[in-house]
Amino acid sequence: MSSSFAAPARGCPVHGVAAGHADVAGDAFDPFDLTDPFPFYAEARRDEPVFYSEDLGCYVVMRYADIKAVFDDWQTFSSENAQAPLRPIADEAKQVMKEGGFTAYSGLSARIPPDHTRIRKIVQGCFGPKRFKSIEPQIRAIVERAIDGFADRGEADLLASFAYDVPALVLFRLLGVPDSDVRMVKDWAVSRALLTWGNLSPAEQVPHAHNMVRYWDYCQALVARKHQTPEDDLPSDLIALQTDGAPISDHEIASICYSLLFAGHETTTTLISNAIRELLGHGSSWADLRDNPALIANAIEEVLRFSPSIVAWRRRAKADATVGGVPIPEGSNLLLVMGSGNRDEDVFANGEVFDIRRTNARNHISFGYGIHFCLGFQLAKLETGIALEALARRLPNLRLKPQEMAFVRNISFRVPTAVLASWDRPAS
């Protein structure tokens, strides 16, 4: 099977060179520096929209149409490498995980049909609008309590004081995890991100490998506990379906928990943090949203387009193919840079401009596309909308403090290290 996309090759004449030879853009590409990658993205879209990165061993795809086409062709471009460690796991770290009985596998994002189809059909019936609607009052209560904790200070790191815990507390309610475990599971999630998408030395991998063992043990114990004491939560729902004959194993339910206890809150923490940053940092955007809450829904879509939580994702070619006029040999890895595609001028006029009234903002590809479109997209937008409405209502003159924005070094998750803000304290 082969796949061909019509977008013509433009720019550098070395397109199509064999893997192992870095293109001009590949030489300049630092995939781990996400502080402000967008000027490079714009140049690459114009001059080398598909190039080879020798550092990553990946073909890097920068244009919207090409990225969307790869996502849509799951037969040719498999998701099997989506959560594979970017750097080889060192022998010592491997040994830690082997001795610890670590056998976790992707819940959905790295699975392929027919397993993906079977499991997603079962899970999406339990993890969808009906359950999200039922938990909305709890989300509002969690958000209001979080703001209560810092509103009188007049300043805070809104990542640490607000965005860090709120999505985890929501997600853990859905999964039946006690609030007291939030910090522990968040630490494990950081380890998972760094071990999978980071650039760790062999020695740096070891403590994170220990955390992966603890994380997987926790997920298995969670499923076992829900067998004994079912509650009103997702794992209990899946176990009930399993008991009624649904084709899903305990290992697969634990793997769903393993995925959601990471993706179900880490990306929303980043979305809320980036929403605050961008809205406060672009002209009257915060004041406009504060004065007209009806703008919130579209503002979230614009944040997802302009400053997505996940800027890049991986695929592997299962057959010889062509992307953007560049031959992609079978077995090649691809990095799809959604953070670039979301600013593609062929789709988004003035794509480098942040505009909360943009009429086609929701056409972004930050949640992916095709069969792997993010299962939790509705929950992420619901939580972020509630968070922004509450902040605008309770801290109407919120403003960013002077700061140098820094982001965690990795290839996929554009996570700020802090969002320092201040506001006028309520009169006593």
UniProtKB/TrEMBL annotation:
The keyword Ribonucleoprotein does not apply. It holds the Pfam family p450. CDD domains: CYP130-like. Its cofactor is heme. Signal peptide: none annotated. Keywords: Heme, Iron, Metal-binding, Monooxygenase, Oxidoreductase. It comes from the Bacteria. Belongs to the cytochrome P450 family. This is Cytochrome P450. It comes from Kaistia dalseonensis.
